[in-house]
Amino acid sequence: MSNYYSGMILSHIHIPAVTKKSIQEYAEVSKDQNIIHLEQENAKKAGFSNIVAHGMIGAASAAQAVEKWIPEYEFISSYHVRFKAPHYVNESLTINGTIISTAEDCSKVTIEINAETEQKNVILKGKIVVQLRKENGYASSK
């Protein structure tokens, strides 16, 4: 039997502020050199109030919350997000999650997630489906 249930609110996970250096490093590795990610002046010309972090930085942070919420997870089998607002340089995030369903055989849980800034601006919303480990008493899908 699973320790997780539909409607279960998961703890809030704090993600430290994204720095200009980490945004620049991501831009280099990803080859996404869009001007809104690199210089404040260019971001402002494009209508933003500051340098914008790449959306995948926030999405990866949200996915990492699974490790804290469900330590016995085996892998993420599905992950869908929609970006709702920009995540600016020097903004920290809070990742929130609620389990919205569990598989009948307790092998998977589906988590509704969102990431919000300190100002309560939701930057992304989505769903993560997590496969649980068989050795912890959970059935495995084949």
UniProtKB/TrEMBL annotation:
Record-level GO BP terms: fatty acid biosynthetic process
InterPro entries according to UniProt: HotDog_dom_sf, MaoC-like_dom, UPF0336/Enoyl-CoA_hydratase
Every MaoC-like domain range: 18-101
UniProt superkingdom: Bacteria
Alphabetized GO MF terms: (3R)-hydroxyacyl-[acyl-carrier-protein] dehydratase activity
Name assigned to this protein: MaoC-like domain-containing protein
